[in-house]
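Worked problem 6 (solution included).
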Amino acid sequence: MAYMRAVHTLVRWLGICDGNMQEGSFRCDANVSVRPLGQEKLGTRAEIKNVNSFRFVEKAIEYEIERQIRTLEGGGSIVQETRLYDAAHHHTRPMRGKEDADDYRYFPDPDLPPLVVTDADIAAVRAAMPELPAARHARYVALLGLPEADAAQLCMDKATTDYFEALLSALASCERAESAQMDASVTDAKFAANWVLGELAAALNESAAHVDASRVSAEALALLLARVRDGTISGKIAKDVFAAMWSGEGDADTVIAARGLRQISDSGALAATIEAILAEFPRQLADYRSGNEKLLQFFVGQAMKRTKGQANPQQLNALLREKLGATGEGRG
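Solution. The predicted structure is:
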């Protein structure tokens, strides 16, 4: 099944097959044979014909292996034949006997001349080929630092990985154009991959749409991510902005301006909010001063509530720790 998936990805990647298994564009004939441990020669094979889903291929092979072992251990013999997989009852059944190639009545056709493929032909095709899935997967892991799982998921479909490539390029252009000071704790590649495999994939799935028909282009998503990276909005608010973009309310800057979602990064305004919260919750402040530092998240939540989620999370946390630390001086 893993081999089938790899070939399936490859033929669609190269545009030589749509890979539609239900319509017969891509199917599997699985040849199965077994042998006792220690024996080099495989036993008589049976061919399972025209299996049309990855799951059925796996189940058909598993059943056929068990059937052949059961037959041989019961003193029977395996007949070389073609079998069909019955998905409803999860078993294979005989379709027709098969001996050798002669049974197919093969014979040379005098009207078909030999086709000679030269080394030059092969080199020309190879030079014109795009970067293949395995190579792109390896590059994502080695050069972009993506986890294996993310790289594999991105490279399952060429349109998805092309969208990701366009997103990275557009995000880099946004950063260069605006000389933004980006959060260096998250790489562009991982940040972009999270959005492609997260919010974008969820929206496409809900709309039953392919990435080629995405309502948010790679360039539009890049602008949104740039607004997160330059501190204009938080990652949480970005999800709301993305939903609005998906609904057709405009690009990231338009939605942010129309909804008043710009992140509060003014230290003075945040400090005033924190002072008001500490004054409002003296009991929790006293508990924090007594050593219950888990209450930090309580104060963060109150601050976010007061600012409608628009406080810069990094600045808010830093200021809170500073204020609480100063307030809690002398804890023993």
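Discussion: Confidence is low (pLDDT under 50) at residues 180-186, 327-332.
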